[in-house]
């Protein structure tokens, strides 16, 4: 595990980043499925037939947050997007930098998030409903997945 620290303010979750295998192993041990194999290095997920999901460089805080979500909801959690190239690159707390992790929507997970997290409004641009967990993570309810970030520090 890379022990680099970016000076984040939150002591709840670690600041380190994980290798592809470390991230996948931790998710698997927590009972979280990753929907696809990792992307070839430097290739956008849109350029891979059938898509791909990379986790190399994922912040340990994001993986810890996913594990906590799985434990708290006690439901099916499937990671669908991680650090693969091809996502929006606006800002620094983005997928490619390991700050964001997406999860497939299902009725039980949807119900858990909407009933246990605080509704905080609508995201500009796409109109996704936003929910904030007690740890500070923000969950954006998109059409087929939850776009999630913020387990590490305020953003």
Rough shape? globular
What's the story with the biggest beta sheet? Answer: 7 strands, mixed
Radius of gyration: 14 Å
Kindly estimate the percentage of residues that lie in beta strands according to DSSP. 15-25%
Class inferred from helices and paired strands: alpha+beta
Please provide a written account of the structure:
The protein has about 160 residues and is an alpha+beta fold. The chain is built from 3 helices and 7 strands, in the order H-E-H-E-E-H-E-E-E-E. The two termini are about 25 Å apart.
Keywords:
155 residues, 7-stranded mixed beta sheet, alpha+beta, 22% helix, 7 strands
Question: SSE layout and pairings?
Answer:
Elements: H1 20-29, E1 33-34, H2 60-73, E2 78-81, E3 100-104, H3 107-116, E4 118-122, E5 129-132, E6 138-141, E7 145-149
Parallel strand pairs: 1-2
Antiparallel strand pairs: 2-3, 3-7, 4-5, 5-6, 6-7
């Amino acid at each position: 595990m890379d022990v680099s620290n970016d000076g984040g303010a939150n002591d709840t979750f670690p600041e380190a980043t994980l290798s592809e295998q470390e991230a996948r192993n931790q998710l698997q041990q927590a009972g979280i499925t990753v929907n696809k194999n990792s992307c070839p290095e430097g290739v956008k997920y849109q350029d891979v037939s059938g898509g791909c999901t990379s986790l190399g460089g994922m912040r340990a805080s994001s993986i810890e947050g996913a594990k906590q979500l799985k434990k708290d909801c006690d439901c099916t959690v499937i990671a669908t997007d991680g650090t693969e190239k091809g996502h929006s690159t606006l800002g620094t707390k983005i997928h490619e930098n390991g700050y964001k992790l997406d999860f497939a929507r299902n009725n039980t997970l949807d119900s858990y998030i909407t009933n246990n997290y605080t509704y905080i409004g609508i995201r500009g641009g796409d109109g996704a409903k936003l929910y904030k967990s007690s740890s500070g993570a923000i969950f954006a309810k998109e059409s087929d997945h939850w776009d999630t970030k913020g387990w590490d520090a305020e953003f």
